[in-house]
Fold:
Amino acid sequence: QVQLVQSRAEVKKPGASVMVSCKASGYTFTNYYIHWERQAPGQGLEWLGLINPSDGSTSYAQEFLGRVTMTRDTSTRTLYMELSSLRSEDTAVYYCARAVGAHSPVDYWGQGTLITVSS
Amino acid sequence: EIVLTQSPGTLSLSPGGRATLSCRASHSVTSRFFAWYQQKPGQAPRLLIYATTSRATGIPDRFSGSGSGTDFTLTISRLEPEDFAVYYCHQYYGSPYTFGQGTKLEIK
Structure:
């Protein structure tokens, strides 16, 4: 079955960087885009960007340009999302989620990774 | 950026009732690129409806979507206890992809 298994929760200090991983299984890795979204405590969903695992091409939300980097490792079927210059407002659950195309709905989500930014 | 505004913020209904959730977009959204998600506490969202009217795999037919342009609706007929959750609308065409702020469907 399709699984997206994300890395564990982390606590980071303001100004630091964090990398969240997402290991995919149960489907053809290069056939599905991976989106990254986040959800601050008690808030709604926010889209950070997407990556095409087939060629590594990316598209980022304007708000996160310069701070977010999405990569993939096809040998281990793992996706990565790095967010730098962390601030308290970045405290959220970060999700990876797959979609068959760049303009297709996300159909499977990872379990989420809580990133807490606190001094 | 396409802003999605959902109403009402909270909807209180009884099991067996009918729920109508609305989502208004700040700019026209092509119907192919509009979806609804359900989220329960502590869980990731679940895809309910995509392309405005198509039910995702395994979604019961009491869930239906409609709309076009800037106004979209999710209807849940015959509410079951497991339907009480938060619902988000979502457009996945114009970058950044955006979500509504959510409608909480609670038991009356």
